[in-house]
From TrEMBL:
Tree of life domain: Bacteria
Stated name of the protein: Acyltransferase
One MF term in the entry's GO annotations: acyltransferase activity
Keywords attached to this entry: Acyltransferase, Transferase
Length: 255
């Protein structure tokens, strides 16, 4: 068959580099349906409810504040070791269309547990609509992706293998979902160490959540506890913040 060659765009080159960096990570996953009835009730009454990505980012970071293992990365240099970060750093997969091409670029949010939920949501929404050159993380990523292949490999190696740099480049956890496009059980791949994915809200007021993690960092039992704590954080702290942000006005019914 005769086809036609197509150049790899800068955005697809980023994904190629990301997949290469993820190849050697021994990922395992655990999934569970979380009951989010209190969260849904709080969100239904909010004037301007935060998006699901923002709620999961902050909820996971709140759990990580009490669970240091969720702020731990595997680093190879100067020798193989586990490295605990002082705070969470989230990477959120942002779906965009650039020059007619659909692409995904990660947005970095440092210490989301210390930010108002509205601020986390604003960062994610801005990353979806602002020009790439106006988003610092996007500029940084595109600058590295433009490098020649040998220099690109070197920059990725430094970002991946030094514990301190892992937080700067790849964060302590990532959030990705296709719920906005109809849902499905997504098992995304990143260099890790933790990736959270969520589906659509089901009629029984549950939402399916998948956590993938680097098995070199921790085992399944702590992650099972994390899913329970994540459900609690969504239904307590996040729901309370939604309620505190203001409720929809109640319209009087004429008689």
């Amino acid at each position: 068959m005769r086809g036609k060659p197509k150049n790899i765009s800068l955005r697809r080159r980023l994904i190629c580099d990301l997949m290469r960096a993820s190849m050697d990570v021994p990922f395992v996953s655990l999934s569970r349906s979380l009951n989010v009835r209190p969260l849904l009730e709080a969100r239904a009454g909010a004037v301007a409810p935060a998006g699901w990505a923002a709620m999961f980012v902050k909820a996971f970071a709140l759990v990580a504040r009490e669970e240091p293992i969720l702020r731990t990365v595997y680093a190879k240099w100067p020798w193989p070791a586990l490295y605990e970060l002082p705070k969470s750093v989230a990477l959120v997969a942002i779906a965009r269309v650039e020059d007619g091409e659909e692409c995904v670029i990660p947005q970095r949010i440092a210490a989301p547990e210390a930010l108002p939920l509205a601020a986390v949501d604003a960062e994610i929404r801005r990353a979806k609509t602002a020009p790439i050159q106006d988003v610092p993380m996007f500029r940084k990523i595109m600058r590295a992706t433009r490098l020649p292949y040998p220099l690109r490999r070197l920059s990725w190696a430094v970002g991946l293998n030094f514990g301190r740099q892992r937080g700067n480049w790849f964060g302590s956890f990532a959030v990705s979902s296709v719920a906005a496009y109809g849902g499905g059980e997504l098992h995304p791949i990143t260099p890790g160490p933790f990736i959270v994915s969520y589906g659509v809200v089901e009629p029984d007021q549950t939402i399916h959540v998948v956590i993938r993690w680097d098995h070199r960092v921790t085992d399944a039992a702590p992650i099972a506890r994390v899913l329970t704590k994540l459900e609690q954080a969504l239904n307590t702290e996040i729901a309370a913040e939604l309620r505190a942000a203001g409720s929809k006005p109640i319209r009087a019914v004429g008689t």
